[in-house]
Specification:
The protein is α/β, with parallel strands linked by helices. It has a domain of 183 residues: 3-Layer(aba) Sandwich (Rossmann fold). Helix content is 41%, strand content 18%. Helix 1 links the parallel strand 1 and strand 2.
Amino acid sequence: MTKTELYAVTGVSGRTGAAVARTLLAAGKGVRVIVRTQANGAVWANQGAEVAVANLTDITALSNALSGTEGAYIISPPQYAQDELFKQADVMAETIAEASIKARLPKLVALSSIGADKSKGIGLISMNRTLEQSLEQTGLPVTFLRAAYFMENWSPMIQSALQQGSFSSFLSPLNRKIPMIATDDIGRIAAEALNEHWEKTRVIELEGPRPYSPNDLANSLTQRLGKAVNVKAIAEADWAKALLGSGMSAAAIDGFITMTQALNSGHIGFSDKSKIDRRKGSTTIDDIVTEISS
């Protein structure tokens, strides 16, 4: 009898980790979800997954959770509400790297972001860069998924349009298109990557079927709702005020502002290196609008 391949998956309480776990289970693979509490794993245990409890700052618990698997999907979740979120990201990156070595993990697929190749001026994305640097030093086969802007980041704006007929955007100019991707597509591609063979470190850039602008979202909402939806750019001077009450710490807000400035200026974008693997998801902005507005 052939032994079922077993993969560890972190971040299953979030969108991409859940999509990875679902894709692997649907393909008949074994899945071990790594969660902070046993209760968080109950829904996955009911679907046939193993459950391992480990914190991403606990080397021993995490290495035990990773041991005996064919590979792992890794996400280092940002602690946006914390003042020390960048230091916490450093600790998690170091813990993940050390635990992966201790577990003799055969391979890893780690969620990162476009812009992680830049050394400065990237704000929150510097946490992705930290994870990349720590994992690269392990010498293990690692795939970094440098994902484009998440389409689901538009969820609050879509809700605003549903309630008020308009929404505001940090991204500008309003007609400027940038690469975007849905989190379900990230999860599916990550699961596919886990089943591939590679050596050392590789980068896969992820985007959707085409780039989108705030105006594209407004047009999609207009078609969906059958009435005009307007979009307004938030003046940069008002960004910090607009983020008050978001639950983000002052440090996180500063990081968000720097990141968004870099997105708007084009500092953050895909690499121009032709040898980098770039893969596309199939989910469109219309699909996201339909999902959220249903």
